[in-house]
Amino acid sequence: MRRDVFQAIADPTRREIITLLAHDTMNLNAVADNFNISRPAISKHIKILTECGLIMIEQEGRERYCHANLKKLQEVYDWTSHFSAFWDKKLSALKSFVEDDYNKIKKRK
Question: Between the CA of residue 29 and those of 32, 34, 64, what are the distances in Å?
Answer without folding.
Answer: 5, 9, 9
